[in-house]
Amino acid sequence: MARPRAQKLTVYTKYNFHKLKDGTTSVYRVEYQYDYDLKNYRGLSSKKIGYLPEGCTDIKDMIPVENSKPGPKPGTQRKNKTIAKISAQTPLCEIQDTRQQDKITYPSYLAFFVLMMCAGAGMSTTPQVAEFWRAHHDELCRLFADCPDREISHDTVRDFYILLGKTNTDMLLKSFNAMLLLEEGILHELEQMNSPEAMEAFYKAIYALDGQAVRATKIHPGSKNARFIMSFYNCVSKLAVAQELVDEKTNEITYGPKLVNRVDVRGGIVTADAMHAQKGFAQAVLDAGADYCLGLKSNQKTTEESIRKLFTADKNRDLMCCKVEDDKGHDPLERRDIRVLPGSLLSPEILEKWPGLSDGCIAELCSTKVMECSEEKAKPEYRYYFSSLYFNKEYIAALLLHVIRSHLSIENKLYWVLDVTFDQDITQCNNSDFLKGKTILNNIMYNFMSVAKRILEKERNKRISMQSMKPIFTNVKEFLSLISKFCILSTTNDQ
Fold it and tell me: Residue 167 has what DSSP assignment?
């Protein structure tokens, strides 16, 4: 017969002592009880209740926590101490610290400040962050009033990444982006056209959606089960606006509509690759008040074949063309020709499948590379797209060509920098919250460095790369002065 359990479990109390570097001892009251299911004792709470002066060991001499902690010894006060204080409207307030408040030693804002520096300096592992903290500990103590005297461990750094992963990453990223100096891009292809409609089309926001694999998260070498990060990139402001970690049991297709609903894309154009050429994704974009431009491949074979036949037919009277030669000083010249037709030419079955396509348009992009030093001619490559953009709109061919080319910026500008500058592709982890926190910090630092790069280029009157900005993030004072331009931190003098 099983032993009957007591209705009311006994709560036990004990006191823990932790000696500090200044000679005082912190006293903690710990409450625990026996758990019959676990067959072991389980802690209930831990609270700091006071301090023991230097040389005292009896708890009767304890100074309660309500009273002030013994101050520094005479003659040890520092004059003209520069203290970095957090602004009241800082985005760091979006971080919800779920840790037990009585056990916190390192403030969350200070840890986030150090993690930002390490991300910008290219330090991707937790031991590198802990070593950076130890190397700059004295300077951090001078600049931050509540910086603890003890050193940090790589396990604590890992806990901070996990804390970031459990935070509302959308609100955190949105708050940081709101403080950055947004600069709208200009479409240079139509700059010389004086039409107001053409310039209005150029200033439309273009959002690119794509996924990126973190290859170091593979369980076995050569396996295909690496974790994916879905990113939403604003091609005009050149900022990452949202991200999501794809669950192991799903794929990117299911996360496309979710990201569209989490970002304000009203009046913009959303572009994605052929994987997201799905009816649900197209409907989600239209419901959000935006237009879509999607590529086609063999996954939509019927639609692709129908569009290809329309462009090879002879009755293309409404054909709009645009030719662009891409010459950036390199050997292969790439000539891109785009032809656009109204979507209403498609069959009723296809128009019923794709929402917004009856008033939209379809496009054929022909890319040809020409080698000037060789007489060989490369074969043209044809790609097909469909969009909900109104066909009769002026300059539709040039606008579609720009949208299609803008989608490549998420690969060339965002993902390339994340892998090369932030070493995101070699991040090894099995914890989802850690990976989510690490990648959201990389996106925040990418946006910060992207805007800071524009500011430094204007100040120095020359072009600089993100790689050349790394020395800034190894100097605490220099980074503090740079980050203060965005009102994230403010410095005051304490006499």
Answer: S
**Residues 92 and 74: beta-carbon distance below 8 Å:** no
**At what angle are helices 126-135 and 108-120 packed, to 10 degrees?**
110
**How does pLDDT run across 42-86, given as a tens digit for each residue?**
777 778 888 888 778 777 778 887 544 444 444 444 444 444 444
End-to-end Cα spacing for the chain? 73
Neighbours of 245 (CB within 10 A): 20
Nearest one of 279, 276, 275, 281 to 261, comparing CA atoms: 281
Q: How far apart are CA 297 and CA 272, in angstroms?
A: 12
Strand partners, 381: 367
Helix (H, G, I), strand (E, B) or coil at 270: strand
H or E segment to which residue 87 belongs: none
DSSP E strands in 197-268: the ranges are 206-214, 227-234, 239-245
Contact 435, 246 (CB under 8 A): no
3-state SS assignment for residue 13: strand
Contacts of 369 (CB under 8 A, 6+ apart): 332, 333, 334, 335, 378
Query: Helix 432-460 to helix 154-166 angle, to the nearest 10 degrees?
Result: 90
DSSP one-letter code for 24 = -
407-459 pLDDT, tens digit each = 988 988 899 888 888 888 888 787 888 888 899 999 998 988 888 888 788 88
For the chain, the structural domain boundaries read 1-68, 80-267+429-495, 274-406
